[in-house]
Amino acid sequence: MSSEYFTDESLSEIYKKISSVVPEIEWKVHAPLIKKINKLKKDKNAVILAHNYQTPEIYHGVADISADSLALAIEAAKTNADIIVLCGVHFMAETAKLMNPEKKVLIPDMTAGCSLASSITGDDVRMLKEKYPGVPVVSYVNTSAEVKAETDVCCTSANAVKVVESLGVDKVIFLPDHYLANYVQKNTKVKIISWQGTCIVHEKFSAKEVEDIRKENPEIKIIAHPECPPDVISASDFAGSTSGMAKYVKEKQPKKVLLVTECTMSDNVQVENPNVQFIRPCNLCPYMKKITLNKIYDCLKNESNEIKISHNIATMARKSVQRMAEIGR
Ligand code: SF4
Fold this sequence. Notes:
Strands 2-1-3-4 form a four-stranded parallel β-sheet, with helices on both faces. The protein has a four-stranded parallel β-sheet with strand order 6-5-7-8, with helices on both faces. By secondary structure, the protein is of the alpha/beta class. The chain has three domains: 125 residues, 3-Layer(aba) Sandwich (Rossmann fold); 82 residues, NadA-like (Rossmann fold, 3-Layer(aba) Sandwich); 78 residues, NadA-like (Rossmann fold, 3-Layer(aba) Sandwich), CATH 3.40.50. Strand 3, helix 6 and strand 4 form a beta-alpha-beta unit. The model has no long low-confidence stretch (mean pLDDT 93). The N and C termini lie far apart (46 Å). Helix 5 packs parallel to helix 6. It has 16 helices and twelve strands. It is globular. The structure holds iron/sulfur cluster. The site of iron/sulfur cluster has 12 residues, from loops.
């Protein structure tokens, strides 16, 4: 394998950044693909948006914007690119398409789903609306376009409480994450009617695991995602969205930290905070990990896996996403 992957100016800059989390032997496999993808991106006027749970070679190697789902939705609406490649899961690519109906939106793997998004359908929401007439529906962005079409306003973990309170009502239907609903309920007086969806990654964490890590590392700061069970959040020092977590580490620079979330996130935040030690109990999201450099290259080259949403659903769903974007963080 050529050493050009360590001396080529653009590649060596990237490798310098991620060398603490990507071994040389892996870099030799990633580097040629990164080079090809970045060239193809320019040739086709494409932009790559990557979620915080994408692997470091994607997050730092080819992504133009790496962020949480709220920022990805907002950035998708601003881009001048002709093609958007969304490195994340299917609902994120659908959201990008809703925000940018004229653009071609591609996802490297159509089967990159989400346990939360698949926990609820449009029929389920219509049933809830019949059961609770007049009660507005707030849906987490981790839902299909069909569910968003039945929703008054979307939210992410970064702005869920703000969105619920923005409605000025005393009761809302909050979908589909039961634990996030629980977290919101603790932070607002508005009554929350929840659904029983869960994230298969965050529900695996237990308070005992977190407490044991604290016992072994008394100086540690523990930061949990609001999709975690309530006792895990109570056992943590802070709860926040993926961007909230990254911001906490950047600003507070704790000596040691545990991010109670998908474990690739620790690699990505580590790159930007070399003086912080990360403790990593590893829960990977199998859906996020379906996205690879090879699949990004193929989908951009062939312009395959395009996201299509029917006109009626898109028109209704877009309103709930736009309303969320207007509310912001
Ligand atoms: S981490 Fe959980 S919420 Fe995020 S995509 Fe994976 S299953 Fe869905």
